Structures are given as structure tokens and as C-alpha cells.
Amino acid sequence: MKLKELLAEKRVVITDGATGTWLAEKGELLPGQPPELLNLSNPTAIRKAHQEYLEAGSEIITTNTFGANPFKLARLNLAEKTEEINRRAVLLARETRGDAQALIAGDIGPSGELLAPLGNLSAKELASGYRKVISVLEDSGVDLFLLETFSSIQEAEIIAETISKTSSLPIIVSLTFTLGKRGPRTLMGESPEDAIRISGNSIFGLGTNCGEGGRETITIISALKKETGLPLWAKPNAGRPRILEGKTIFPENPEDAATTAQELAEAGAKFIGGCCGSTPAHIRAIKNRLHNRIK
Ligand SMILES: [Zn+2]
Predict the structure, then answer these.
(1) N or C of the chain: less Cβ packing under 10 Å?
(2) Percent of residues, the chain, with pLDDT higher than 70
(3) How many domains would you assign to the chain?
(4) Quick one: which of 86, 203, 202, 67 has its CA closest to 133?
(5) What is the pLDDT of residues 144-185, one digit of tens each?
(6) How far is the CA of 277 from the centre of ligand 1 (A)?
């Protein structure tokens, strides 16, 4: 099954939910520990996360590689493990998928660095840092690339371009916006209209994840829908996060998430799942709501 074939079925494609917050909730991830390290130190936990999402109905699962780029790993003194962490992550996803139909998205997150002239990182350095990650993910067998939680459209654009130079796999770019008085803006002040710039670079789909809650995600998807005919990707947090007694709480339960998902589908989202605070129970509720509704 290819991504195009999945979409051709004319229904919403169900993706997976959070990895990091879910692992933390299960006690598998200690505070401050990078989730990607578990690919090496606790593969059972990662397999279990994939397994639970597959059983909940995810048609696309995401490799546990969000922070597995050489820039972030260097800050943890793990840069030399970049290749191994990415390779193991894809193997864990593939082992868990087995003969199932689900697709594996190679997850790529931002570098955590500011691009020049605001920061010190040049476009060239950014591209060369990600080149290795991209080739390891593809060689290990991902079905598509997912660039997610980018708050700089420029950074996402450079990485998407780097991928398209060597790979023909589909690329989905998912940006993080916050809603202000002027409408949705990334941290770098870019709007959904600016996001269209990346579409010229033969990306497969465009969307949004993380940031605020489901309400905000619906507004952002509606704004993107006005700008592009590309398939839209939406992974909202399980509600707008708030801090309660020093702990981050995500207020949406699975049925709330299903209601949000229904509205996201009406606003034009073709891929729907969850970001921080979502669990396999949220994905199951979304799947039941959307696929029963469409059938
Ligand atoms: Zn998130």
C-alpha cells in the first residue's frame, strides 16, 4: 500500500498519536530523558507504543526519531549515535508492523537551532546535517517522510528540498502555529499563506501539529484549506496544555478528541491523529467516530 492509494480511498486516513507524552505517562521515559534514546535502551517500550497505535487503528505510524538529528543529539553528546538511533527506530517500527498494511513515516523534527542571520546555522550546514538522517531513514525502509512541529517554514523548506534531491518518497510537512490577533503564525511570524511556498517543492501534503489545542488546529486547517489543494495533515494536542501542580495536563479525553477530529475532517483534513497528550485510546475513538461516520 502506498500513501496515494490510501488517500484514494476517499476517507480520512488515521495516523498515530503521541510517543513522548505517552511513554512518560507509562513510566518508560524519565523526566529530561530524550525519547529517541529508548530506541537503543528500551526497544520493548517503543514496539509497544507502535503496537498499541496499530491496534487502535493507525494507518500510518511514526518512527521514534523526532529529535534524532545531529544538532539536537550533539547537545546531548550523542551526535555519533545519530545513524544508529535512526536505523533502530525504523527497524522497530517495521518489526512491529509485520505484515500489516500500515505505512511508516520517518519522523524528522527541527534542529532546535536558529538559522542565519538570526542564529549561527547556515542553510548549507542545516542541509548537510540532515542528509545523513534522510538517507538512513530511507535505506532502513520508511514509506514517507514526515517533517513535524516546525515553527520555521524556512527550515522545513530547506529540509524538504534536501529530501527531494535524493528521494522520491512522499514528504509531508507539518508546521506549528499559535493563534494570535492576526490569525495563525509560526514562532518565526510566518502565516499559512507563507506555508504555500513549500508546496512548490513537490511536497505531498501540508499540515499542522502540536502548538495549542484542537479548536486552534481546526482554525489553522481551515486557513490552510483556503490556500492549497494539497492533502492536509492534522495532529492536534489532546487539548490546550495547562500546568497543574507542576505537571502538564492535556484536558481532552478520547471522546473529545473524536469530536475535534470530526470537525477537522469537515474543515478539510485528510490525515488525522494526535500530538502531545494523545494516547492509543484517543486514536481508537477518532477511528471509530470518523470511519463509522463515513461508512
Ligand atoms: Zn506535540
Answers:
(1) C
(2) 99
(3) 1
(4) 86
(5) 999 999 999 999 999 999 999 999 999 999 999 999 889 999
(6) 8
